[in-house]
Design goal:
Elements: H1 4-25, E1 29-37, E2 43-50, E3 56-60, E4 65-72, E5 78-80, H2 88-93, E6 101-102, E7 108-109, E8 113-116, E9 119-122, E10 131-132, E11 145-148, E12 154-163, E13 174-183, E14 188-197, E15 201-202, E16 206-207, E17 210-211, E18 225-228, E19 230-234, E20 247-248, E21 260-261, H3 271-276, E22 280-285, E23 294-300, E24 306-312, E25 316-320, E26 343-348, E27 363-364, E28 370-380
Antiparallel strand pairs: 1-2, 2-3, 3-4, 4-5, 6-16, 7-10, 8-9, 11-12, 12-13, 13-14, 14-28, 15-27, 17-26, 18-21, 18-23, 19-20, 19-22, 22-25, 23-24, 24-28, 25-26
This protein binds alpha-D-galactopyranose (GLA).
The site of alpha-D-galactopyranose has 11 residues, from strand 25 and strand 26.
Length: 382
């Protein structure tokens, strides 16, 4: 008896189940390549995460940095909506924290000093009298180890870093993980942070992406419409350290409870706007539940129709309107990033919390696990 029908049937079954699998599997993927060597010879890798909806995220192991994020506009055309550099040298020399993972303590600690369990710790003062974004060599300037943990339904990149006890003045050996997840079908990038310590320490991790949802970084972000789900913000002194007050936003240029253009009130005669040279403040988010992700901010760019929703587990968000960009940073494609061509929405605990017992605590103890999650969700509007 001929074996042909059996062979044919086996082939047909193979083809039926295997070919469609490869056809769809090929549409979402993660690719790793070399991004060069740092000035002291360390190798840096570049991971490209792609989903089925036209979203592409690129992350490098230097600083666990998000270097590019391509999302579609209302016509389906994808463009890069974050600022950054083309080269590793750009990130090594850059002073603007483009896309970087910020730690051990995001934002400012007054006078570079805090006291924990009776000991006073001294941190590098790299922002006038204060310590900013983890000190002189923060997590955004460290080499992280990347591992592809992709699943059938998502591309997953896990990055780890161990911060030695005493690094930049902070106590305790801190083991940190940052995980970027791009679902195959949803237009959102999720960032999860976990950390453990062997000694009491303070921690406040965030991502410092600058968004320009127009996809054209030569344009200012002042026409972007912003909503912040916050009734209060933490006013600052002239060095951008919170005074400790929680102030109602109602009746001030800090009220974004209804969407408003960023540029609409930015030039008002307001002491807080003067201190920040625009917006550079922490808003205390309205939370309806104690745990889990909640909407913190929503941004609409009217020309492209792109919408970014930021969801977070954190109690605060730093909205920074790119006031220190001055056209000297030479970014992707040679673009000189001018004043207010990018905006940051840094999910966080409040700045200078270690010196404000009334603020939500940023202390991490041995045996505990620090957890923080943020989702950047993209859509479009007509
Ligand atoms: C944060 C700070 C700003 C500025 C930027 C980086 O958003 O709050 O004051 O330092 O980082 O330039």
């Amino acid at each position: 008896m001929s074996r042909l029908p059996v062979i044919l049937s086996v082939f047909c079954h193979w083809a039926l189940f295997t070919i469609p699998f490869y056809a769809t599997a090929a549409e979402h993927k993660i690719e790793v390549s070399d991004f060069g060597k740092t000035s002291d010879g360390a190798s840096v890798s570049r991971y490209v995460l792609i989903n089925r909806q036209g979203v592409e995220a690129v992350v490098i192991t230097y600083g666990a940095t998000l270097v590019s994020l391509k999302v579609p506009d209302r016509a389906g055309k994808s463009a890069d909506v974050v600022l950054g550099y083309d080269t590793l040298e750009g990130y090594e020399q850059g002073k603007s924290y483009f896309g970087g993972t910020i730690g051990r303590y995001g934002n400012r600690i007054a006078h570079g000093e805090f006291t924990l369990d009776g000991t006073t710790f001294h941190l590098p003062k790299n922002d006038g009298p204060n310590s900013l974004h983890g000190g002189t060599v923060g997590f955004n300037k460290r080499i992280w180890a990347g591992v592809d943990r992709s699943r059938a339904d998502a591309e997953v990149l896990e990055l780890s870093y161990t911060s030695a006890a005493g690094e930049e003045g902070y106590p305790g050996t801190l083991k940190v993980k940052v995980t970027y997840t791009l679902p195959a079908e949803a237009n959102e990038l999720r960032i999860d942070y976990t950390a453990t310590t062997d000694k009491d320490t303070v921690i406040n991790l965030t991502n410092h992406s600058y968004f320009n949802l127009s996809g054209d970084a030569s344009r200012e972000i002042v026409d972007h419409q912003l909503l912040l789900r916050a009734q209060q913000f933490t006013p600052v002194d002239a060095t951008l350290i919170p005074t400790g007050e929680l102030r109602a936003v109602r009746g001030t240029p800090f009220d974004f409870t209804k969407p408003a253009a960023i540029g609409e009130r930015i030039h008002q005669d307001d002491e807080q706007l003067k201190f920040g040279k625009g917006y550079d403040h922490n808003w205390a988010l309205e939370r309806t539940k104690k745990v889990g992700l909640e909407l913190a901010a929503e941004v609409l760019e009217p020309t492209s129709g792109r919408v970014l929703e930021v969801l977070t587990t954190e109690p605060g968000i730093q909205f920074y309107s790119g006031n220190f960009l001055d056209g000297t940073a030479k970014g992707k494609g040679g673009q000189l990033y001018a004043h207010r061509t990018g905006l940051c929405l840094e999910t966080q605990h409040f700045p200078d919390s270690p010196n404000h017992p009334g603020f939500p605590s940023t202390v991490l103890k041995p045996g505990e696990t620090y957890r923080s999650s943020t989702v950047l969700r993209f859509s479009t509007r007509k």
